[in-house]
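agent> step 3/5: call structure_predict on target 'Mannan endo-1,6-alpha-mannosidase' (Sordaria macrospora).
agent> reason: downstream docking stage needs a structural representation; sequence fetched in step 2, passing through unchanged.
tool.input:
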Amino acid sequence: MRWNVAAAGLMGLFAQSATAIKMDIDNDQSVKDAAATIAYGMMSYYTGNQTGDTPGNLPDPYYWWEAGAMFGALVDYWWITGDTSYVEATSQAIVHQASETRDFMPANQSRTSSNDDVGFWTLTAMSAAEDAFPDPPEDQPQWLALVQAVFNQMASRWDDINCGGGLRWAINDFQTGKDYKNSISNGLFFNLGARLSRFTGNSSYGDWATRTWDWERSINLITDEYDVKDGAHFDVTTHVCRNDSGPHVWSYNVGVFLQGAAFMYNVTTGEEQNTWKTRVDGLLGSIESKFLTNDTKIIKEWYCESGFTDRGHPYQCNIDQQTFKGYLLRWLSSTSQVAPFTYERINPWIRSTAIAAAAVCTGPVGAAAPQVDSGGIQPGFRGIDGTACGFKWAEPFDGWSGVGAQMNALSAVMYTLTHKGLGKAAKGPATEKLGGTSKGDPGAGVTDPASRGGLAALKPITTADRVGAGIVTAILAISIVGGSVFLTI
Ligand SMILES: *[C@@H]1O[C@H](CO)[C@@H](O)[C@H](O)[C@H]1NC(C)=O
Ligand SMILES: *[C@@H]1O[C@H](CO)[C@@H](O)[C@H](O)[C@H]1NC(C)=O
Ligand SMILES: *[C@@H]1O[C@H](CO)[C@@H](O)[C@H](O)[C@H]1NC(C)=O
Ligand SMILES: *[C@@H]1O[C@H](CO)[C@@H](O)[C@H](O)[C@H]1NC(C)=O
Ligand SMILES: *[C@@H]1O[C@H](CO)[C@@H](O)[C@H](O)[C@H]1NC(C)=O
Ligand SMILES: *[C@@H]1O[C@H](CO)[C@@H](O)[C@H](O)[C@H]1NC(C)=O
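tool.output (status=ok):
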């Protein structure tokens, strides 16, 4: 096993000056301890619970959505390991960002929240419902009702006029992505539909998921090979969809569809279930061919780790893209639970990735990924010295530390324990009938005035909005949820 030799060499190199993480993959307590160290390092970036700061926000240059994703990892961390260290901070963050409107549309973030940004916070609420994460007091927003609110709003944004269906990337008229239908926005809607269908037993949600899948296929965003392309622009006057996604694929696009397809497999029977099984297998094939190293089966972000060049330099993942493979791990793990026939295939991938990822958590306090484009410099690592994780796993510690690197490594390590019965996770995601406690509200979110008929029915834009919008468009053009932006500039 070539990897073990390399990993052993690495450990030797960094162990002298550093603590490093010594993890025995076959010892549950050792894996749990490694996860705890990495989670601690991740939360060392979080300042939202300090006096004067806003619960749920990460410091610049991290976008709002990434904080939402981080708390999703922490919900699962509690579910799998039983470690309650971050339960309070997580609950406070989700409830605060759910905002007064109870739909993850806080006014402070209206400029940066497109369907995908809102969708990532909503996934966190969905995980909280499925994991039976402690429910907030009754007068506070409830996990399931939050998901239903956002789902209903997304459904009302479905746009049949352009490209024959799908959600646009943008929610508001002043955002980038008004003329872009992207796979992550639609994939999140699909994913939430499939999971709501299983959690509530209401098949209307699944009907929306099926419709979204069919539409993605119809414009070839999901290809015959089950690659999931980033998105398609359309002509705003003719409404015709372009075939302009380019060759790049991102791990979170295929991952978000994989988990949704696995949930659809779980809730269907007969012929329909066979169809979803074929899709799950197909997506796993795409993942295996693009997002796993050939011989060692370690997850990688294909476009940033395969030597592609951009303007003469190796293409580097921006801050958003640095987090994608962590979500792929999350969705792979969940897939192996709700579509158990995939377990034998997926589990070895998570295991080899966990070993590789933990082996490069050797960086010092202060380690920080270099700036990519104009994304800003990430704060230096403040966890335990010698345990800062790197981004690339198939090579020695690369210095690319940050929230993304911690979240990815945490995911790799903790999801090896999903089936082990340490916490509640071994039973699989809860449903309303089986283990779930979260209260729903099927009618939530339907009166949102900003969501009827896509962008057309939006409130008129004021001068103040326009002034603000210029700045935000500039920021958006740099980096909001990942792959999409890279392709639009
Ligand atoms: C904020 O949360 C972190 C991580 O849970 C914790 O270590 C820290 O003590 C908290 N700070 C405050 C002010 O509550
Ligand atoms: C919005 O910003 C204000 C001012 O910083 C802050 O007090 C409030 O908590 C923020 N609200 C949300 C939902 O983030
Ligand atoms: C089922 O879900 C749909 C949303 O797609 C909702 O309109 C309907 O009220 C739900 N039915 C029940 C019984 O909750
Ligand atoms: C879309 O473009 C790709 C090249 O980027 C091409 O290979 C493919 O055949 C095109 N598909 C359609 C349906 O035009
Ligand atoms: C696996 O090997 C093939 C053939 O050498 C190569 O084209 C492909 O990029 C490799 N895959 C990965 C994920 O490195
Ligand atoms: C659905 O998921 C549960 C685990 O959460 C699993 O026990 C069950 O076997 C799955 N159903 C099917 C048809 O695979």
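agent> step 4/5: record observation. The domain at 7-467 is CATH 1.50.10.20 (Glycosyltransferase).
agent> proceeding.
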